[in-house]
Amino acid sequence: MYMLPPFLAYYGAATSNITLLQTAYDQVRLYRQKLQTSSDTKLWSHIIGGSYEDRLYWSTGNGWAAAGMMRVYATFNNLRDAGLYAKTEAWRNDLAEWVLEIANDAFTHQQLDTKLLPNYMLTDDTKRNYPDCSGTALIASAAYRLASLVPSYVPRLPMSTIAKSRIAIFSKYTNITTGAVGPVVDPMDWNAEKAFSGAKAEVGHVSPEGQALVLLLHAAWNSYSSAHSSTEI
Description:
Elements: H1 4-15, H2 18-35, E1 57-58, H3 59-77, H4 82-87, H5 89-106, E2 117-118, E3 120-121, E4 131-132, H6 133-149, H7 159-171, H8 208-227
Helix pairs in contact: 1-2, 1-3, 2-3, 3-5, 3-6, 5-6, 6-7, 6-8
């Protein structure tokens, strides 16, 4: 979701190819159709089918989906061909709504004590639902990108809740000396029963992926705050 649809969208934009643009949109639409497995939530299941099937709701996976959709949206939104831009209007509207779905549902699961999302949402299994900066940061970054590119969505997003997560990540969970972030899920094992602590900037303690996702959050927040005169935190 974060790689193929954005690539197709960008290649379609670069070559003014409506077929590639539609394929990018259709890939997102079909992923969503397949991975929204419950009528009780708009969150996406992690993996459907195959030997690695995982029908639970992994925060980082939902973050990849939301952030990938925002990359496709941004590409469509910056099409230079007026005709192609007009043809993608309905697709842009869908993408914005689908990112909103994930952001809104995910942040209903923000933990009151940590202000983070759990590694897996909608489960009481303590080996899976520990707090995680990676998924929290990625979903929050997608929400801030949506708010920046489509300001009319700001009232529909849980901005104050997202802000609590952002502030916690940078003030409480980031080591200002080493830059290490924790708690974060093991980037090589989403089923890991314990988060990396971020206590040391060493293998087994930090997640390079998590570090990158926190930077995406900072960049998205910077774009949002620069574009808005609002005092919203």
